[in-house]
Amino acid sequence: NKKAFVELLFWKSPAAACEMTKGYSSLQEGEGTTRSRVPPWTPQQEQELRELYWKYKEVEGGDIIAAILAQLPAPGRTRRQVVKQLVRM
C-alpha cells in the first residue's frame, strides 16, 4: 500500500494495526474491537451497584471495589468495569 504512511499519522487500535499489516478485511467476524464488547449495565444492576457502594463507602481501611465485587450478583464484571460504571453514575 503506497499510502500506508498516511495511516501511520493517526492513532490506531491494536485491531486496526493488525488489519493494516495483514491487509484490510483480514479480521474475521467476532475479532478485534467487537470481541471485547462488554454487556451494558441494566437499571437493576445499576441500582444494586449504587446500594453496594453506599453500604461499603464508610468502611475504614477496606477496598470498596473488592467488597462490591464480592457482593455483586452479576458474575463476570471486572474491577475496571465497576469503577468505570461508578464514575459514570
Task: Summarize this structure briefly.
This protein has 89 residues and is mainly alpha-helical. Helices cover 51% and strands 0% of the residues. Residues 23-43 are annotated as: Disordered.
How does this model look, in words?
Residues 23-36 have a biased composition (Polar residues). Residues 23-43 are annotated as: Disordered. InterPro entries: Timeless. With 89 residues, the protein is mainly α. The protein has a domain at 40-88. 51% of the residues lie in helices and 0% in strands. The protein is elongated. 4% of the residues are buried.
Helix and strand arrangement:
Blueprint: H1 4-7, H2 14-22, H3 43-56, H4 64-71, H5 79-88
Shape: elongated
For the CA atoms, what is the radius of gyration?
Answer: 20 Å
Q: Which segments are poorly predicted (pLDDT under 50) over 5 or more consecutive residues?
A: none
Percentage of residues in strands: under 5%
**Overall helicity:** 40-55%
- Annotation, overall tally of beta strands: 0
Protein name: TIM protein
Biased composition (Polar residues): 23-36
Organism: Dryoscopus gambensis
Region (Disordered): 23-43
List keywords for this structure.
single chain; 89 residues; mainly alpha
